[in-house]
Amino acid sequence: MNITVVGAGAWGTALAISLAANHRVTLWARAAEQVEAMRAARCNQRYLPDTPFPPNLTLSANLSAALSVADLAIIAVPTAALRSILQQIARMPNRFGVVWLCKGFEAETSKLPHQVVAEVLPEEFRYGVLSGPSFAQEVARGLPTALTLASSDVEFARDTAHALHHARLRIYASTDVVGVEVGGAVKNVMAIASGICDGMGFGYNARAALLTRGLAEISRLGLKLGGRPETLTGLSGVGDLILTCTGDLSRNRQVGLLLAQQHDLAEILHRIGHVAEGVYTVREVRGLAQRLGVEMPICEAVYRIIYEKVPAGEVVADLLSRTPNYEFDLNP
Ligand SMILES: NC(=O)c1ccc[n+]([C@@H]2O[C@H](COP(=O)([O-])OP(=O)(O)OC[C@H]3O[C@@H](n4cnc5c(N)ncnc54)[C@H](O)[C@@H]3O)[C@@H](O)[C@H]2O)c1
Ligand SMILES: O=P(O)(O)OC[C@H](O)CO
């Protein structure tokens, strides 16, 4: 299969390296200088240093040319850039499958990626989301990873999962696009909360409680938006929540660890040097939760720390002083 990976950050580069074992892969980056540097070094020194490119991985700075030969386009840019990339794809005369990797809600519209895709791409395109617990560095090194590919088009989900699957990259198919996207987006907010919790030295008990109550929040929002309960306990829900909240490779967790040390947000983001989607997602999730009447106190706490500059200690004290209630609804 001819695969064009659109976006050469950490995740696009890692997946391009992984898929090049079985496919003809072109990795596209928007900056011609970045492509030249990657060509010369046969490595993405800016976003994924230390992993050399396989000899058959092709690089391109020309999106139309890279897509003109594609059977499948994999969109590997942050959520903020999804719409503009889709608009360029929509102008292509040829048709190919489209898979996106971004984990977030679109800023201002609070839309999930599949809603943006449905607005922009003409009907003839077939598409889906690929998500789950996956640190780019580990996938690039060929360490075992399992993901979910979800599409409302069941044949597309099954066939694409089958085509991308290999021994070190297990891909399960699903039709629950909403559940997969909500799990992938909101776990980033929980990872920031987990970083704050650990950075403040609250210990393992507190982290376990945070993850569990975080899952309750993710599930409440996911179900309200139409996701399925089993998806939220699957790879793209619990799986990605555990990874991102506990693994120090997570950029969102790193944001939380640095916020606990009272670093300034702009300085934190500069220091991390990659997108940390939870910083933007928390605004949309908080707005959605308020509009839909979904109780999400951990998301509210992260929002107050980041956007209202309330000291983390004060926000945590407020969280812990909430009146205890039933763990689950008595009449679900
Ligand atoms: N890194 C991971 O381990 C990982 C794993 C799973 C999912 N994701 C998700 O994948 C998405 C991308 O993450 P990443 O780690 O690759 O981010 P990154 O910060 O490493 O790289 C982002 C890339 O997108 C490019 N980009 C930004 N805006 C663009 C635009 N308008 N047009 C073209 N290119 C643009 C940047 O130049 C950069 O190459 C995020 O939504 C992230 O949550 C990341
Ligand atoms: O580094 P993060 O926090 O963006 O997380 C990366 C992936 O989403 C983990 O599955």
UniProtKB/TrEMBL annotation:
GO biological process, one term: phospholipid biosynthetic process
UniProt: sn-glycerol 3-phosphate binding residues: K103, G132, S134, K187, D240, S250, R251, N252
Positions of NADPH binding: W11, R30, Y47, K103, A136, R251, V275, E277
Keyword check for Lyase: no
Domain Glycerol-3-phosphate dehydrogenase NAD-dependent N-terminal: from-to ranges: 2-156
Glycerol-3-phosphate dehydrogenase NAD-dependent C-terminal domain segment(s): 176-316
One annotated Gene Ontology cellular component of this protein: cytosol
Positions annotated to bind substrate: K103, R251, N252
Record bears the keyword DNA repair: no
Function per UniProt: Catalyzes the reduction of the glycolytic intermediate dihydroxyacetone phosphate (DHAP) to sn-glycerol 3-phosphate (G3P), the key precursor for phospholipid synthesis.
Family: Belongs to the NAD-dependent glycerol-3-phosphate dehydrogenase family.
Alphabetical list of PANTHER family matching this protein: GLYCEROL-3-PHOSPHATE DEHYDROGENASE, GLYCEROL-3-PHOSPHATE DEHYDROGENASE [NAD(+)] 2, CHLOROPLASTIC
Protein name as catalogued: Glycerol-3-phosphate dehydrogenase [NAD(P)+]
Organism: Ferrigenium kumadai
